[in-house]
Amino acid sequence: EASEPRLRYAVRTLGLASVTVLTGLLLAAPQLLPTLELQQLSVRSEEQEFDFLVKNSLPPLMWLNLVVPSAFGNNVTGFEGGDPFQEDFIYIGLIPLLLVPLSFSRPLRRDTMFWVLLIIGGAILAMGRYTPLYQYIIQYLPGFALFRIPARWLMVVNLALAVLAGYGLENLLNSPKSRAKAGVIVLGGLAVAIGLGLAWMFRESLIDWTQAGWSDTSRKLLRVFFEKGVALETVYQSRLLLGWIYWITTPIILMIANIAVAIVIFGLYAIDRISTTTLERLIVAAVALDLVIAGGTTVNPTQPDTWWHQLSGGAKYVLENIDGTRVFPLGMGSEQATVSQLGQYFPSVYRVRSAGGHGSSLMLERTQVFMGDAHPVQAIRALGVRYLLTEGQMGADAASTYPIAYSDADSFVYENKTPLPRAFVVHDAIRVDTPEAAMAYFETVAVDPGQTVVLETDGGAPAPATASTPSRAEIIHENPLEVEIEVEAAADGYLVLLDTIYPGWVATVDGQQQSIYPANYISRAVFVPQGRHIVQFRYHPLTFRVGSWLAALTIVVMAAIAVINNRNMLRRYKSSWTKTWAYDKLVINKNLRL
Q: Would you tell me how many other CB atoms lie within 10 Å of the CB of residue 158?
């Protein structure tokens, strides 16, 4: 009987949590449904290999970052050793770490074990390839194949550790002053210092001992720990706030400073020199300062806006001569090169179309296959590339096909003299029924995509006609959701648009809807009859419309529930007010009679 209220409470809580999650999903449907559609068309559409799933796992030795921040490098000093790099989010501050054991003191909170289990589960998941559980069990669990970079599970560990540290501080502040508890924290700090001191004294023996039985990654990490842990990084001298005390960013120095601060704060508390309120304020201040210094990247000097608009000579040449065609930046090896050589997404700043872009785990599968399997010359043709922009000079074969149009000390520009326009009409079509069959035509240079289009169709695509004179296509209006093209077709043919084939696009010819065919594996095409026409491509995705209707319906239901609840509250309030008013009136009348 006693357990029945608990069961009802658990069921009610689970139901409320489920409704909350479902409501959030429905409100986010305009974003989630298109994202799910993208995922199904990307390289993540199928289960990935084990090595892909466990890329950037946390090596066990990197748990040292719990007490020694940035011991293996960071975004400022560079990374060495393991592969999580900036995914290593484990440091919560030394004082919070020392407070965690106090969360287990009496009275023990009911949810403490939940956070402990969360730490254990998050730690196992974060280590990925370094635990057999991931290889034999976890990778086969439903849903886990959708995630990569196991080290990101450290965010769960961080959250749980921070909560337990808060519980520990609360227990310390709410319980009678205990020298024993403060002493435990002080001794914990001293134990960390002594342990790392002994490791430093016997580091050579430790390194030699790891030669037998340790992996190459662990041995390398141990050497990096002893090197970077004590290295003065002068790069911090350029930081806005840390430049004048850059030496404190040295991992071992920061750790010693934190231990010293902890000993002073909790020592003063243990001998009754500071109050509980003062202790609380000092801990908050010390932890905040610790995290600011440990995360030194948060106080980087800002770059002037001109830095983000720097252009190499080759990039300037491309921008001056691109004239509606595409550039293909190659070999961007640094952030500065990415900015100055039109790498990744920077061409969009100048309204220039790029055949490159930035690689992503959500890259369309067609894009990845085409870029990997197509003949290089055929890929440049089919993508409408005019310029190849590189930092260094390519081989003689490239120069013989694409002559150098510009060069200086920092850049080379190779030019395709006959690039395809973004929109054009062809009067010859090869019809295939599978993407694989279409891709086969681009593994060689036998097909000229400027004269022949390879269509993926079930056989219902109309046949083009031979033209005696050239046809013309001109883009007369466009925005991110719409492209309008004026076409003069000398005969029946196909308008090819060198934009990515993707669901949600609809096409009309003179206002009449027409089918869009995957063209040349990666682009799109529509049939146009002889004559002059206006062809419009418009992005009108079903997933977004369905998501918007679901979100709108959810908002309406929430509003209706709120109105009903509000009316019930008003009714109860009015009833209560009426009874109170009647009682007061009765009392007043009685007093008047008296």
A: 16
Question: Which residue matches tokens 């010819």?
Answer: 509
Distance between CA 469 and CA 466 in Å, rounded? 9
Tell me the three-class secondary structure of 189-229, residue by residue. HHHHHHHHHHHHHCHHHHHHHCCCCCCHHHHHHHHHHHHHC
Q: What is the DSSP letter of 547?
A: H
Q: For residue 317, which of 388, 264, 372 has the smallest C-alpha distance?
A: 388
C-alpha to C-alpha distance for 55 and 128, rounded to whole angstroms: 8
Report the relative pairing of strands 353-354 and 326-330 from DSSP bridges. Answer: parallel
User: Which residue reads 């002889």 in tokens?
Assistant: 530
DSSP state of 109: P
Are 94 and 288 spatial neighbours (Cβ–Cβ below 8 Å)?
no
What are the φ and ψ backbone dihedral angles of 554, each rounded to 5 degrees? Answer: -65, -40
Could you state, in order of their start, the residue ranges of all structural domains in the chain? Answer: 1-42+546-594, 47-299, 306-415, 423-540
- If you search the block for the tokens 């190659």, which residue do you land on? 330
Beta strands, E only, 149-199: none
590: left (phi over 0), alpha (psi -120 to 50) or beta: alpha
Q: For 177-222, how does the pLDDT look when each residue is reduced to its tens digit (9 = 90+)?
A: 666 767 777 787 788 888 878 877 877 787 777 777 677 777 777 7
Biggest CA pair distance of the chain: 117
Sequence-ordered strand ranges (E) for 258-384: 326-330, 353-354
Q: Phi and psi at residue 470, in whole multiples of 5°?
A: -65, 145
Q: Which pTM does this prediction carry?
A: 0.74
Q: What is the DSSP string of 420-489?
A: PPSEEEES-EEEESSHHHHHHTTSSS-S-TTT-EEEE-SS-SPPP---SS--EEEEEEEETTEEEEEEEE
Taking residue 512's Cβ as centre, other Cβ atoms within 10 Å add up to 8
